[in-house]
Amino acid sequence: MSENPTPGWSAVAVEGRPPALAADNITVVFGGLTAVKDVSFTVPDQGIVSLIGPNGAGKTTFFNVLTGLYGTERPGRVVLDGLDVTGLAPHKVAALGLARTFQNIRLFGLMTAEENVKVAMHSHLKSGVFGTVLRLPRQRREEREAHDAALDLLKFVGIGKSAYEYARNLSYGDQRRLEVARALALRPKVLLLDEPTAGMNPRESAEFVEFVHRVRDELKVSILLIEHDMSVVMRVSERITVLDRGEKIAEGTADEVRTNPRVVEAYLGSAAADNHVNIDDEPRERAS
Amino acid sequence: MGSTTFAVPETKRPQNVDRSRIGWPLGFTIASVVIVIFYGFVLPFLVPDVRTFVQNWMPLNQINDALIWAMSALGLNIVVGYAGLLDLGYVAFWAVGGYTAAWLMSDFGFGQKVNFDVLGNPNAGTVGGIHLNIVMVFVAAMAVCALMGVIIGAPTLRLRSDYLALVTLGFGEIIPQVFKNGDEDGIGFNLSNGTVGIGPMDTVPALGINRGEVKFGNLGPFDHVGRFIIFSLLTALIIFISLRIRQGRLGRAWLAIREDELAASAMGVPLMRAKLAAYAVGAVAGAIGGVAFTMQLGQARPDPFTFSVSITLLAMVVLGGMGNVWGVLIGALFLAWFNSVGLPQMGNSINDTFGTHIEFPSFSFLIFGGALVLMMLFRREGLLPESRTRLVLHEGATGDSEAEEPDQELVDQADVIKSGEVK
Fold it and tell me: What is the model's pTM?
């Protein structure tokens, strides 16, 4: 809990624990276009890994395969914590412990922050129509516990004071935090963050890096990021996978990836690769 | 390793207390009791002028009708307002509920000479037919409609909103046609007695109040007070279910689906099951409305179950404020009254005053349509939008003693929403 926030990814993965999430040979074809081609990928247990790549590289498509939104061509497989979840509906995958946030925030705007979090507890709660209408003791206890858990989560992400605000009335940063709180309410094994720092200023992004570590350390969650902000990626990730045009072109630690010529070429063109520029050298242009 | 910036400020507001717990049942009971006392004990003894005026403008019979509309509108509100599924064929549940009641409590008996009597229906044993106790009829109709909801919903709820609306529209047309042609199915089985319909329905034993006389017995055609008591209890039941279910796990799932289907499924909400549940619960309320409707009419006929019923119910939900139980209740009561009493009466007054001969009731759909268009232009959230509910309730004298300071926060939120921000 209080260990060094950034151990090398090998330190986490070595101990022989099975990966929290493994995707084997994922291929997605839209009509004639191959959006993702034969990508294999693992998220080590309690690791923090990133998926990067230029626009249109297939990152989000790949994400959508993991969460069950898209299927994969055979023989692709998605294995979550030892369980084959290939082809399961998104809500089932979510209930089994794969939570996500969205690139363009997708909160339930006209529900309060607390309700937003409680929605994600749906699969952990049991009461049905009759229990709810008659307000049976079990349902009341369940609701009380859900309420407390929701408040705890909101406090954990730092928006405890806004628990009864409508989600759409929260500030942008708070909405991002609420999305994380909502995802955590699924009690996930793996948390997928889709461009979580989009629209944040450098200070907020820096705070976010710490926050990601805190989530991992305190809640024992494995984390997979899609991120454009190279400073965030380089600081937070224990391992980075780079996609370009649907294919995996590199994988490794931050240092390995930033100097990999193929990665530099994908991002900055071949001229930059020849000049030994690194992808996080340039002043970053704000994505979205 | 705690980071200071993500530190935890204390929650300021206390846990969301369910403030309407005593408030609304008390207010509803008071309103009902006042109406019962007025129509049962006071009105018959007033001077003729006043009596005629009340009979013209606010006849109890029409209030009963309005309550039936309100029950069904509240049921539709669960489907449309809570879960955001546009249903243009809600009349199908009315018809199924109504016909179930007619099958189970009349001399009809599917043309067979059976005589089936359960639990003391007072009409049993005269001609034949199935005569169930009214409570059992309600339960049976609710079960049948819930099943119908699931059967209709299972194949259709996979569709996205516009297509779903079209399919439900189809069902709303088909079901009444089935009943209309139910005597000519080609195998000699009489399902519904065709256009003639099934009737008369068994009378219902209940507390009747007539000209100040209270007695327990079978309700006659003019025992409006007795029927009012039953209908207001049923309405209260549906309000109760609507409010309770809104706060539970299922209600949250419905709102989430309404807000963002994709995000809801990514958060572990099973879309199909949640939608089916919304359909089934809505259908149950439709069944109650349907049984009450045939009870009021005294028979089940196919011709009242038309598309315009579905549309009127939808208009009630939209006008009242989708998702808000109180808005829908008031919208339904008002529209039903306006349609059956208000418009003709106002028309009469205008005609009398100006000596014109305008058929005002025939303009009802024009007025409805105009009102809906204006609503969509200027107040698309309805008369009583959902998010202001608590605020509005607090200002109202519903006997809620702990009416705190009128939450500035909610006022602000209401204003934001009111300003027409499109989601």
Answer: 0.82
